[in-house]
Structures are given as structure tokens and as C-alpha cells.
Amino acid sequence: MRGVGQHGVRRILCVFPRYTSSFGTFEHAYPLTGGVQAFMPPQGLLLIAAYLPADWKVRFIDENIRFATDEDFEWAEAVFVSGMHIQRQQMNDICRRAHAFNLSVALGGPSVSACPDYYPSFDYLHVGELGDATDELIERLARDPARPAAQVVLKTADRLDMDKFPIPAYELADIKHYFLGSIQYSSGCPYQCEFCDIPGLYGRNPRLKTPGQITRELDKLLECGISGSVYFVDDNFIGNRKAALELLPHLIEWQKKTGYVLRFSCEATLNIAKRPEILSQMREAFFATIFCGIETPDPVALKAMHKDHNMMVPIMEAIRTLNDYGMEVVSGIILGLDTDKPETGEHLLEFIDHSRIPLLTINLLQALPKTPLWDRLKRENRLIEDDSRDSNVDFRLPYDHVVATWRDCMGRAYEPEKLLERYEYQIRETYPKRIQPRTRQQRSWRNIKLGLTMLRNIFWKVGARGDYRRVFWKFALRRLARGEIEYLISSVLVAHHLIMFARSASRGKTNASYYSLKLRESAETAVPTEHKAAATVPTLLADRPSGQRVTPV
């Protein structure tokens, strides 16, 4: 389905802002690949590009790959922008640059939908999801693309059903330069975790695409050059368990038809471990990784944050269950909770050792607008508006202690030897339990060439020039002796980023909250390669939060 503009053909420049350097964008892994320059294609902007009238001209630029140039702005009649709170400075910068060419600029996505007052300079604010406000924006620009006399705020009252969504315009993006592909099946989550803004933005009743839409999107991603992994960015893959069970047979059939050329990853609540009927089909569909917001191993803290569903199965038992289905667990962890104690950091490191989870996004608590946490802290007068801090929360423990705990945990959790030991466990205990397809499509010359390129880069940049090469070669020689080349590549790609980022974190060179707007970080953004030498889809122009939730290849 497309919008309709009644009065004229327009030229629309869609610009996605660069991410701040983050734990979850994997930029340290890019030099080890065969040309990756950005994390995931921003589905929101690509969705709106596909929704625009068919005769409109659309140009898409992801500034994580290249910056919009003067020529791009001179070409355009209007500019569309999207992003999250963490990209606020970059979004405002795009607006300023577009205004230098007297272009009207429309902003949509999760940040403006939660906090329209953050963006006084934009000409059009699209608040809410794809729907009647989108059609009004298109009609206004069709009549006159010039800047309005005053800011226009458009609020969606009638959302477009997800089964009417067009396939995102992946053909406008250089898909082969992304670390992961992304796709969305549903929007919303039935749970009300205190710190999460998803129910406030997208509702508690998950809305769905059809299985046919999903397989067509996967076909389009393959056609546009995606390889490796595709991440289902749904807020909770089992938010609607019946729908997940209806989708999975279609994914299994699609994988068989295409030769299992892609692996899938997703996000789900930990109580998925109680659903063997879902897990068995996920295994058959080649889901290799699952992100679970464990948040904390402390049951008292889980109850306080309204995440009781994490206790439906003992956490360690749930992790082992997921591993038994061949799925590596990625975990979100939060420090700075009201229930934290001085020894919380040590307990977290013990949990990491016992769980054998390689990748955990350890983050300082940040209160986001439109969350119960924000409302509670506001009532308690514990929200701090100071962009020089790593968090806007007035912690129960001393602020310096909490930040120091985060730095210590990051440094110790991602010591090369400890991290590669956890990957060793996954290779021994988890990966062999995955289905092991060996298809002609997997053994294509393109895949073989890409694997050899990555292996060469890993041996040179880590094995020859890296300062943890002794630990690396101990790990790598074992993989080579056993013919585990794929495991070697996939593990080291992610591990190298974690090690390098964690070193910066432990030295205080990164923000301790990946949602922080700390101003000093603006100088450390992830800049496209040529400028160095020189982180929700149905929301208009939106992208999913990659800084908090990350899934390896």
C-alpha cells in the first residue's frame, strides 16, 4: 500500500543520522569483515520511502555509511529524518544543514513521538505510527513543499494496519554494507516493565504482519544482497504466542526453499523457555541467537521492576534450555537499580561466569520518557536534567560508585581470556545442537570468498597485530584443528568488538548509559569510513533501539 499525493511529484531526501559509538553497533568488527560499514538498515525510513506515492522520487542516505552532500540537498524538495533519543544531536544537525538550503524537514520516529518538545527547529513533526498523519504529511507536501510559516505537528489517530504495510525499500540502501539484516513481524508488547517505553509508544496488544509479508520481505533482502543473519527486531517475538506459532512453519519452509542461507535472531522474554513447541520450530527455522532482557539475576529487583515473568523459570535453567535448542543467549543487564547493593557488581560477574553468556549489554539505568520509571522518579524528584552525567537517574547508591561498578564490570567481563572461554563453552555445548544444513547455496563462491576475506582480516588484525594474540591463537588453533572455521569467524568478529569497546568503557572513554545524551560523546560518533581519513518500524521513519539490544551474527 502507498500514500497518494494529489497535486504533484516531489523529490524526497530520506536521511538517517549516524549512531553514537556504542556497545551495540559493533563498529570494531567492521574492519574484520568484507566491507561492512553500518549495523542494520533503518527500516523506518525505508518503510516510509516505500509508502510514498509511486511517482515521487526518493533518495536514501544512511550517514553511518556516507554523509548527505550539498548535491543531495540541492536535489531535494523536502527532507525526512528519523531516529532515537541517542541520535538527537545528529538529527538536529541534519535539520540545520537542510535549512541552509531552505528545505522543509519532517521528523518522525520513537524520539519525537515520545518527546516532541525536543525538536523545535523541525518544520513537521510526525507523532505516532504510520497512518492518517502520514497521509496528511504527504498531501501537504504534494500541495506545497516549501517550509511552513510555523512548525506543524501531525498526530496519528488512525494507524495503518500492519498487514497493509509495503515492503521497506531495501533497494534504496546498500544492503551488503550492513552487519545484519533486519525485519519486523509485530509491534508492541503485553508486559509493562518499569523502564521500557514500548507499551507507551506502541501498545500492549501486539499488531502483526502476515507470514506472507515476512517471507516476501526476506526474498527482497536476499535480492538486495543481504548475507549472514537477519534480526527480527520485534519488541517481543512471543508477545503473541499464537501468531509466532503461525509464522514459524512459513519460515521453516522459506529456509528449505532458499537453502538456509540466512540465520535468524530475535528478542523475547525469558519465559520463552517454557514453550518447547515454539523453541523446537525456532530451531528448525535456524534461529541461532535470542536476546533476553534478563536485566538482573536478583529476584527482588525483578519484582520491583515488574519483570516477574523472568522468574517463571529459574534464570539459569531457562538459559540452559535455550542453549539446548541451539540458541545462544544474549542478555540485557541493568546497573543502578534501586535494589542494587555495594556488592551487586561482584554478583553480576559471578552470574556471567556461571551463565556462560558471551555477550551481555551491561547498561546504566536511564529513565526514558513514556515509561513508568520516568513517572515514578519524577514523583520522587529523582530525575536529573544534566547532560554531563551518564544517567538522568538519582541512584540510591552514590553516583560515582555506580559508574565505577559499571566500568569495572565491563573491563573484567570482557577480558579476552574470559570472553573466549565463554565462546568455547558455546561452541562445545550450544552450537552443535543447532540444525546443521549443508546446502549448495551456503557453499556458493560468494560465501566462500567472503569467509576467506574475513579469515585473512582476522589473522592479520587480531592474530598478527592484536595485543591479545596469544589468547586468540589458543582459541583459533583449536577451531582450525577441528574444522570449525565458521565458529571461529563468527565468534571472533563479535568478541573483538566487545574487547575493544569494553577497554574504552573501563577507562571512562564511553558513556555508561547507551541512552545518555552526555555532550562529550558527540565528538566520538561512529563516522563513515571515508570521513575518518577524510541501535520502531511501524512508527513513521523509525528505527529499533540497537544501543541497548544487540545480537551477534
From TrEMBL:
Cofactor: [4Fe-4S] cluster
Gene3D superfamilies from the UniProt entry: Aldolase class I
Stretches assigned to the Radical SAM core domain: 173-408
KW Iron (keyword) present: yes
GO molecular function: catalytic activity; iron-sulfur cluster binding; metal ion binding
Gene Ontology CC terms, in alphabetical order: cytosol
Alphabetical keyword list: Iron, Iron-sulfur, Metal-binding, S-adenosyl-L-methionine
SMART domains: Elp3
Stored SUPFAM superfamilies: Radical SAM enzymes
UniProt keyword Metal-binding, yes or no: yes
The name this protein goes by in its record: B12-binding domain-containing radical SAM protein
